[in-house]
Amino acid sequence: MIFFLPENTAMPTSLPTTAATADPSAVLTKAVARAAERLGITKALLAKILGLSPPTVTRLYSGAYKLDERRKEWEFALLFVRVFRSLDSIVGDEQTARRWLNSDNRALNGKPIDLIRRTDGLVRVVQYLDASRALV
Questions:
Q1: 125 in a domain, yes or no?
Q2: For residues 104 and 106, what is the distance between their CA atoms, to the nearest angstrom?
Q3: What 3-state class would DSSP assign to 63?
Q4: HSE on the CB side for 78, CA within 13 Å?
Q5: Residue 127, domain member (yes or no)
């Protein structure tokens, strides 16, 4: 279906100001904290996953610290949020996602909760979940 505007009507050229002014650092910081809470990830473990100190993660939760897009923590945070989003789409509830994280996984050769502590393990878990989501 095609819609035509009257000749003197201009199309809006910008996004609403709320979408245009959203701070990516604030958005990702909040997403990481929420994902960790929903998956039952402790602040100490989140610090290991992101490569931050435990006090920095405490500041992250309080809003006094935002992830820096120029540092590796940004990439780790994106991967961690991907883990959460993939699990959420595959299993659909937090309890099952938590059980999956803490269960032995033959394909990954370990428990995902242990693997995500290291960069290579986090990447493997993301790839595994991405491949699982792609199955139809």
A1: yes
A2: 6
A3: coil
A4: 9
A5: yes
Cβ proximity of 51 and 73 under 8 Å = yes
pLDDT at 10: 52
The answer to whether the CB of 108 falls within 8 A of the CB of 100 is no
- Structural domain that includes position 122: 23-134
Domain membership of residue 66 (yes or no) is yes
The two tokens of residue 118 are: 């290291």
Please give the tally of structural domains in the chain: 1
Q: Across the strands, what pairs with 105?
A: 110
Measured distance CA(58)–CA(82) in Å, rounded: 22
Q: Select the more confidently predicted residue: 76 or 18.
A: 76
Rounded distance, CA 91 to CA 19, Å?
Answer: 30
Q: Please state, in angstroms and rounded to a whole number, the distance separating the CA atoms of residues 67 and 49.
A: 13
- pTM for this one? 0.81
